[in-house]
Protein 1
Amino acid sequence: MQAIWAKHRRRRCHSRPGFTLIEAALATVIIGLGVVSMMELFGACTTENSTANGQTTAMLLASNIREAMAGLPLYDPILGNSAFGPQIGQTVGQFTNVTAFDGSQFSPPIDAARSTIPQLTQYTQVISVMPVDPTQLSVNTNEASPTIAKATYTGAVRVRVHIYYQRTPTMKASEVFTSDWIVMDR
């Protein structure tokens, strides 16, 4: 019996507790894959966060135009519906009606008080104002080829704001957001 006990004790002495080389290598591979996956996740989250920030800024810039138009009459009080776009020499601060914004482009963009926002020079606001039939709001949506002439009085217009973003001055600007709404004559 003592011989069996001594043999068993000798075996226990030779087997040490711990990891084998294969187990250690496998654990290193598993942890390494986890770390690499987390780094890829952080990179994707950073990219998505940057995109969301740009979209939020673009939506704010479009709503700034809407706020700048709030309270203005639809047409020029003197010229009526025959004048779309700013009059000669007229600045954005002098716009007295919604249709005066037609064809305007602001870079740097403007805020709701019509002041420029110099920190956002990469963004451009482009505005178009087109008459629409109040009973058929889906008509006259093509800015390049309108079906209703601008001088036609309909009592309603569609204001469309395109927001462009240009990462660097040498890059081409790309459209990041478009918003439109209907303004009715009072």
Protein 2
Amino acid sequence: MKYVAFFRGINVGGKNIVKMSALSQLFIDLGFHSVKTYIQSGNVIFTSDIEQQLLKPLIEQAFQEQFGFQSAVVIRSDTEVAKIVASLPFGAVEIEQAQNEVPNVEHIYIYMSDCAPDIEKISRLFASYNGKDKFHIVDCEIYILCFQSIRDSKLATLLMKLPQTLTARNLKTMKKISMML
């Protein structure tokens, strides 16, 4: 089966630096096949006969032993990645509105988790939010449409306060990974 391992928090802001060649070698050493990485943020495409739910602890433990720090991993199959890209919950008009506000930045981000977000906790967390950014929850993903750079998004900042581990990728990256699968 084809999978993608999405690592959280590596090669961000000059911290937790991991060379993609070393990360690829880790996956090869674990016995995975057809190993490829995409950009420096820790996206590893690979094939394995191991059941999906067993991959996360195996990869996280090997990563910590190899690189000396923890990095949470979210695993998605090729089918799941295709579904994430196809399930975009924003319409063309609202995407265009966001793009017109601040051109030349990414506006759509997908936050991925191992389990479905707690709707009640998110509702409480977002109760005070009154900005333009929009979000939708689909399965274990939270889609955000930013009307400015993600760095300036108060909604994205609030998401990082959720108790569950999330890792985010922009839509452009998700589409590219889906094509690589």
Protein 3
Amino acid sequence: MSLAHLTDRFGLPPAAPGQLDRLLTLVAGDPHAPTTVRDPEVAVDAHIADALVALETGALGDAETIADLGSGAGFPGLVLAAALPAARVALVESSGRKCAFLERAISAMGLENAEVVCARAESWAAGIGWADVVTVRALARLNVLVEYAAPLLVDRGRLVAWKGRRDAEEEADGAAAAAIIGLEPVAILPVRPWDGAEHLHLHVFEKVRPTPKRFPRRPGIAAKRPLHASS
């Protein structure tokens, strides 16, 4: 798929195609880019289209603040920053090496609405109650993701989580954790960001109650002792 096709499909702003092209060039040429998908002809689907498909959920259209957790190589965060120039995007990443790459990418793309937060989500004190939307791709199971996201979200804010094939057990765990943490699942959307993509889904949760004061827990605890219905 081409950037021109994606521009038409998603109604991208005029500066976005050039910014995304520079991102693809950086990923292809930077030996420290934290991704194994470097070929621009592949990455335009696997990274760019895959990120932009979140625009079809309706959860991001009026977002003023977006926190992308575990940003890694910047997908979906950098792509959404290009697509939504009116939104402020925080790229939350705990690895110093990956943070350095994200800083290079922001500079290469000429983004003025993105910043790197080099910290774990649980340690980002300034992010509490900051985000209209939290995005997360390929980071953890749903019950862990909702715990990461909930403290960062404003009232009625939304979590958008990228997942592959549906897993009934994981979805049940996610819903149970969401009930504890103040979120509720509102949609599981099958998506087809490029021709040939299969079994991809976006899980959308909404913050419907205040997050209990005992959250966020200490870094690492959400994954080590994930929430369940009896927590």
